[in-house]
Amino acid sequence: MKTFDPQAMYSEWMSQLVNQTPWQEWMKPAASVAEMPVLDMLKEAGATINPAVLAKLQSEYMQEFGQLWQNFAVSKLPELKDRRFSSSDWHTHAMHAYSAASYLLNARFLMALAESVEAPGKVKQKISFAVQQMIDAMSPANFLVTNPEAQAKLIESKGESLAKGITQMLADMQKGRISQTDESAFEVGKNVATTEGVVVFENRLFQLIQYTPLTKTVHQRPLLMVPPCINKFYILDLQPENSVVRYAVEQGHTVFLVSWANPDASMADVTWDDYVEQGAIKALEVTRAITKQNKVNAFGFCVGGTIISTALAVLADRGEHPVSSLTLLTALLDFSNTGVLDVFVDEMQVSMREQTIGAGGLLPGRDLASTFSSLRANDLVWNYVQSNYLKGEAPPPFDLLYWNADSTNLPGPMFCWYLRNTYLENKLMQPGALTVAGNKIDLGKIDAPVFIYGSREDHIVPWQAAFASTRLLNPKQKNKNTFVLGASGHIAGVVNPPAKKKRSYWLNPDAVGKDADVWMTGATEYPGSWWPVWSEFLAEHGGKMVKVPVSAGSKEFPASEPAPGRYVKVRAD
């Protein structure tokens, strides 16, 4: 089965400016379900639908379409609950209301068809994903000829909105991505990534930042933060009021953070072993040397959690246990449930990557950005197509979306190893199945209390998958593991400062390490942010309070430049 190509979909959309036939064919009511184009795609994928199910779907479809047509004939406007059609322009004009209602009817039954196919689970998941992408792309809200809001804007502005929209579209085509925010409003180190600190070490893989204390005393053991290498670290340090980094510093921790390099051709040969040995393990070594502490509190977010956990397993196999605690935020160790990302990983796709960049090369950051945008296409793609291009509106400043557009490349060998051994073959969780940096990996040998966080609506790391780490770590002492479930998604759930008093979180200490559903059934919900719970955990394992160091770094590792350093400012595009 063909995989979804977001760039091809966007190019196809642009063709509607000169050719409206594809949309007209899509919206034309089918005489029967059997005539719908999606069935050709199902046949191509080798999927079938039970004839009885198909007949039932056809009957329901024709009945609903008949009712819709009768309502239209007597000028009864359909009810439109989809937020894409919330504007009054969709509800006051019969033709636009009818086109939206027809689209929603077709969309519902296309998804019903996709969900009714008889195919293996992974194939069925791919079919549903591809159909959903097609449905999202073909919304009448995405086309000037069928979007009454854009048409009203065109008339009101005397054509200026369309002219501006085309200008913005052409500029985005030059950039190779859709603008989601006013990028000129932000500068790394000026109004994002502003927590004060200095760079105390660097190699070709990362710079290590030591942040300036904000308290009179600090915990004896430092906190080393390892963010994901698939995007920039400053998601953890956006603005002072929502900075995870600054919060940890304010709680009296001496914070060190890994700022990964944005790979260029000189790093085309870098492997997963390098990220573990020269990255996480080296960062642990330098942090311990500067603070003169045998143990540190370690922290990993997303892929950073996978990297630091692998590093600690390597060190455990060497007989070393350098951490007093481990924090994992929305991180995968057991890859048996990878959510919607699973549609992008199969033997064919991984082998293709291995053949092209597995022995050397780069995965461009724009490829990763396009993939992640496709997971929430209505919010991260078509919403901006409508506002930026059809209505000619300039996107407002938003720090999170600025970060989202600041892509990073990945070394081909590292990325291919990661895909095959985690997502495809799920070997990281199997004791002794992998050798990294010359050592056998057994996550169960990591000897440290662990704080594990998952986000309830996370579409990248399903919370049940994050919870699965409670069975892999401290397998004989599960009471050393803490699991917290937060509201919202992969990013918004993590970046949830207490001062905002938003969302909620769940705890159930008696069921950690058991089945996820059992844990959830007995969990207690608490209002607000989970950060204070994490702060208590860190304090428990941070050691006694001591005087603030006179200066950052050491004689062996002197400060070289102010935070956030040079590496984070290198852009992939």
Summarize the structure.
With 573 residues, the chain is of the alpha/beta class. It contains 21 helices and 19 strands.
Task: Kindly describe this structure.
The chain has 573 residues and is of the alpha/beta class. It contains 21 helices and 19 strands. It has helices at 6-14, 21-27, 38-44, 51-73, 88-92, 94-115, 121-137, 148-156, 160-175, 244-250, 272-291, 303-317, 347-357, 365-375, 377-390, 399-405, 412-424, 463-467, 469-472, 516-521, 531-540, and strands at 48-49, 117-118, 197-202, 206-211, 217-219, 223-226, 255-260, 296-301, 323-329, 362-363, 410-411, 435-436, 439-440, 450-455, 481-486, 504-507, 524-527, 545-547, 561-562. The strands form five sheets. It has an eleven-stranded mixed sheet, with helices on both faces. It has a two-stranded antiparallel sheet with strand order 1-2. Helix 10 (244-250) links the parallel strand 6 and strand 7 (255-260). Helix 4 (51-73) packs antiparallel against helix 6 (94-115), helix 11 (272-291) crosses helix 12 and helix 11 packs across helix 17 (412-424). The protein is globular and about 80 Å long. Residues 1-7 have low confidence and may be disordered.
Descriptive key words:
eleven-stranded mixed β-sheet; globular; 21 helices; two-stranded antiparallel sheet; alpha/beta; 13% strand; disordered N terminus; single chain; 573 residues
Number of helices: 21
Biggest sheet strand line-up: 17-16-15-14-9-8-6-7-4-3-19
Kindly, what is the distance between the CA atoms of the first and last residues, rounded to a whole number of angstroms? 31 Å
Structural class call reads alpha/beta
Overall geometry: globular
Radius of gyration: 26 Å
> In percent, how helical is the residue content?
40-55%
- Poorly predicted runs are 1-7
Portion of residues in beta strands equals 5-15%
Give the strand tally: 19
- Give the averaged pLDDT, no decimals: 91
Largest sheet: 11 strands, mixed
